[in-house]
Amino acid sequence: MSGRVSGDLSRFSINQMTVKQLSLPELVQACARFGIPGVGLWREPVRAYGVEAAARLVRDAGLRVTTLCRGGFLTAGEPEARAAALDDNRAAIDECVALGTDTLVMVSGGLPGGSKDLPAARERVARALGELAPYAGERGVRLAVEPLHPMFASDRCVVSTLDQALELAERFPAEQVGVVVDTYHIWWDDRAPTAAARAGAQGRIHSFQLADWETPLPEGVLNGRGLIGDGAVDLRQWRERVDAAGYTGPIEVELFNDRLWARDGEELLRDVAERYVRHAL
Amino acid sequence: MSGRVSGDLSRFSINQMTVKQLSLPELVQACARFGIPGVGLWREPVRAYGVEAAARLVRDAGLRVTTLCRGGFLTAGEPEARAAALDDNRAAIDECVALGTDTLVMVSGGLPGGSKDLPAARERVARALGELAPYAGERGVRLAVEPLHPMFASDRCVVSTLDQALELAERFPAEQVGVVVDTYHIWWDDRAPTAAARAGAQGRIHSFQLADWETPLPEGVLNGRGLIGDGAVDLRQWRERVDAAGYTGPIEVELFNDRLWARDGEELLRDVAERYVRHAL
User: Fold this and answer.
1) Which Pfam families is this protein grouped with (chains A, B) (predicted)?
2) Hey, where are the domains in chain A?
3) Residue B242: what pLDDT?
4) Taking Cα atoms as reference points, which of B55, B63, B61, B67 lies closest to residue B18?
5) Cα separation of A188 and A251, whole Å?
6) Residue B70: is it exposed, middle or buried by C-beta count within 10 angstroms (0-12/13-18/19+)?
7) Which residue among A85, A190, A253, A272 is least enclosed by CB atoms within 10 Å?
8) Which residue of B has its CA nearest to A212?
9) Predicted confidence band at B95 (pLDDT cuts at 50, 70, 90)?
10) What are the backbone dihedrals phi and psi of residue B159, each rounded to the nearest 5 degrees, phi first?
11) What confidence category does residue B1 fall into, taking pLDDT thresholds of 50, 70 and 90?
12) b/e burial code for range B104-122 (CB count within 10 A of at least 16 → b)
């Protein structure tokens, strides 16, 4: 369990949420031991540990922070809620700078309470991106708009397809706003391959994430992402597709899954890395 | 509780599954009492009651059978499973004729075990429709391809959007194959309004169904359809949209919901009819 994982892990990154049972120092140590070069971090555990201390920890271990999760939640209509959301996103951008990552993952937010108006909510996301994009760009941070599976459209993210995410991103320079290609959210969409090619050609694939699709989904559907290789998604085909679109960056595995969180964190991390080699390369 | 529901119910139809706690005779009797002119029936309870007896029951009550649910499940690759599915669909078409309905709702089926190939599964659906469409057309029955929400793509229906359903239907004459517009499955999709307009212009909206979207979704996600008016879907806007596309047929409410099934069936039926008037007209 202690040695390096065999296979080419040069592009592999583990999203912190996948192994949230590990503390940040445990995660960093295990990555070094297994030969894992990248991590995607989450704001809450990073802030609990201390942003500067976390930055030092990963830097000293030679780890690359591939993404920070997450900004967004930009659909509020009321001016106060809206201003608070923009402030929080600027803080997230600053945290990216401190952690040395160039990519902030953006989850747009769901319908505001009582609203049934998806187009209006999407337009508020666009307007908020317009305020945040220059701030991010000046700091060398790219906003990566993540489409979430349509089952999250009402309560978490009104941006449901890669096409929608890309249409938002295309209003801004590519070095300011791009998209996340996450197999879990888009695998079902027959238009997603074309959108991925277009995003790649524009240099707008700012993050590529892998998760598999398994059923039955658990109550609330949030924590049922499949361990890679166990589900319905052709992960290798997606990796090849994104590569063919010109993407050469890190490949992050992000799973939310109660069953996986009940496992030993290091054993799970090793399993995920080995499965990455077996199913995605 | 016993009188007619006030408001214009002339296009209203109750899908049997919505009030499955009612026996077929109870349902028929309650429809007559409340002034509900249409029912969407399901094969299993109809066959349990007897197809001919069920046909007589609804006919004698002056009820219109707006749809029969459901045919489909056409994604199997093995010749025997495929032949069995085709036979079963021909039986469903015959049952439509016996019940006096012109519309068979088609749920295409999920990925066959172990497969990760959505396009191949969709193509098998198209080929199967090619075998069934003339059989249906000769008997005055229209196959209505229903896109199911993308959260069902792996295990229930590889046709996830109205565009995909319409692209399948367009290979055949409109009097043989069309689509189901069900708000539950497509409400999130920014391309669905255009697809609905195209479907209407082609005379291919063969069924229009209402259900609302509520979260959190229950485990397995199948039985969490929202009572109309309680969720995120602008039902009136969808009704107006489908009308504007030229659709003049019945409007069916189809809910699968454990909480609703725990209620008194007649009280629920009345509530649904009243909500239809309030939220969709």
Assistant:
1) AP_endonuc_2
2) 12-280
3) 98
4) B67
5) 20
6) buried
7) A190
8) B116
9) very high
10) -95, 110
11) low
12) bbbbbbbbbeebbbbeebb
Q: ipTM of the predicted structure?
A: 0.96
Per the CB < 8 A criterion, the answer to whether A169 and A203 are in contact is: no
Interface test with A, best of B111, B123, B154, B225 (most A CBs within 10 A): B154
In chain B, residues with a C-beta closer than 8 Å to the C-beta of A154 are 188, 213, 215, 231-232
Query: Which residues of chain B approach chain A closer than 8 Å at the C-beta?
Result: 111, 116-119, 122, 149-151, 153-155, 160-161, 164, 187-190, 213, 215-221, 231-234, 237
Q: Which of these, A48, A34, A112, lies nearest to A272 by C-alpha position?
A: A34
Q: Between helices B265-280 and B24-34, what is the axis angle to 10°?
A: 50
Kindly report, residue by residue over A106-124, the tens digit of the pLDDT: 999 999 999 999 999 999 9
- What does the pLDDT look like over A203-258, one tens digit per residue? 999 999 999 999 999 999 999 999 999 999 999 999 999 999 999 999 999 999 99
Domain range A12-280, CATH class: alpha beta
In the three-class reduction of DSSP (H, G, I as helix; E, B as strand; rest coil), residue A161 is classed as coil
Classify the phi-psi angles of B255: left when phi > 0, otherwise alpha if psi is within -120 to 50, otherwise beta: beta
Q: What pLDDT is attached to residue A1?
A: 58
* Smallest Cα distance from A44 to chain B, Å: 23
Q: In angstroms, what CA-CA distances link A250 with A5, A203, A242, B104, B146?
A: 17, 14, 11, 48, 38
Q: Which residues of A touch B234 (CB under 8 A)?
A: 116-117
